[in-house]
Amino acid sequence: MRIVAVSLCVLCVMLCDCTVAAELSAGTARVDLTPPLEWRVPLGGYGARMSRPATGVHDRVFAKALVLSEGDRRFGLVTADVLAFPPPFKQAVLDRLGEGWSAEQLMLLASHWHTSLDMSSLNPENTYEIPQIGMFHPQVFAATVERVAGVVEEAASQTQPVCVGTDSRKISGWNRNRRSSEGVVDDGLIVTRFDGLDGLPVAVLVNFAAHPTFLSDREMMFSAGWPGHLQRTMEAVIGEGVTVMYYNGAEGDQSPVARADSGASRWERAERYGRELGLLSCELWRTIETRRDVVFSHHRQPIALPEQTWHRDYLETGGKEYGLTEELLTRLLPALFPRETASVSVRIGDLVIAGVPGEMTAELGLEIKQRGRAISGVEHVAIGGLADEWVSYILSSAEYAKGGYEASVSFYGPDLGGTIVDGVAEGMLQLAP
After folding, report:
1. Three-state DSSP state, 287
2. Quick one: which H or E segment has residue 336?
3. What is the spatial distance between Cα 24 and Cα 68, in angstroms, rounded to a whole number?
4. How many CA atoms lie within 13 A of 372 on its CB side?
């Protein structure tokens, strides 16, 4: 299989007329984001941790960059083993990168793992010192901005011509709707392959919608979780120094389904899930044919958000977990949540990644995928979940009305889902054919 995969890419270079479309180049890099334990950095994901610092390192957390270029155009895709990015973070990275980089040219994608850097610790606007929601940590903010900007620069400095291909398949039984056994499930696995002109692997992108949980608030060591195990497994199997990057989809109501006989240990369940999903992704990767002549374009679509508010159930659900009262919400929402967001989208051959700035439910994610295929004519549309910033959970008006945890942590009312879907679709419409 390895010989066949290499020869397909080499044959593509020999046969295709590379003057027809973009002659794409790509570079990759990675950086360790794990802070020293003496910094006493809290883990994100659970209010019950009360911002207690991590007690150890189970496995290290990373950011990885893929920089694509064609002529004088370039685009940086960063995946990171962190909970999420707060609104000020991307601009801080762009300020550090300086001239030559704009908000349209960069997409940050968080895996949303719950034993890694907390979103609140990366937010300089978070001055409230509420342990349940997390507290700003200036040292880890500065270090993470520097490392993310640095990994983009490193990837941009070592690009090479590449062939690209994408494929997808349905994998039932790997995720479920956590709000309802009858709820919508997005079981689409999407894998994108970047090979050098010599046929050797450069990068692999893996997209699958599932909340990166398995661990509880009682596990207190840094870890990249099952997404980390997935990436390490694929890098070991494929070899040749390949960089594997996982990015989540519309995971707002999607939970992973543990593999059978994976043991009582939460750590073991996470490892086995990531390892087996990585092996399944490798099977798909081996079948992908790559091309040299691919369309490459990107766009940033501003989206005006509805008025800020909180759900009627908030104080009994999210509010109870995060220690917030109505008085605190009145002050906190305008300070920490934006009035406008954006969707960055990128087309790479037969793949469109549509950035969604929060945790979207699968129902809306599938609607974006359907609209994206109709708009762009590409076969594979992936949701880039938690893209660039976390604005809240994103539900349809019907799901918002049902209440529950996800609705209680959605801070723009019942119209947010439709607003984001329309904005993302408008952004995809601007991508060059």
Report:
1. helix
2. helix 326-336
3. 7
4. 28
Task: Report pTM.
Answer: 0.94
> What is the C-alpha to C-alpha distance for residues 284 and 208, in angstroms, rounded to an integer?
13
Strand 62-70 with 351-355, pairing: unpaired
DSSP 2-17: HHHHHHHHHHHHHHS-
**Parallel, antiparallel or unpaired: strands 393-394 and 359-360:** parallel
What string of pLDDT tens digits covers the 433 residues of the chain? 333 344 345 444 433 333 334 589 999 999 999 999 999 999 988 988 989 999 999 999 999 999 999 999 999 999 999 999 999 999 999 999 999 999 999 999 999 999 999 999 999 999 988 888 888 999 999 999 999 999 999 999 999 999 999 999 999 999 999 999 999 999 999 999 999 999 999 999 999 999 988 999 999 999 999 999 999 999 999 999 999 999 999 999 999 999 988 888 999 999 999 999 999 999 999 999 999 999 999 999 999 999 999 998 887 776 667 777 788 888 889 999 999 999 999 999 999 999 999 999 999 999 999 999 999 889 999 999 999 999 999 999 999 999 998 998 999 999 999 999 999 999 999 997 7
Asked whether the beta carbons of 408 and 359 are under 8 A apart, the reply is no
Four-point Cα dihedral 103, 121, 271, 266, nearest 10:
-140
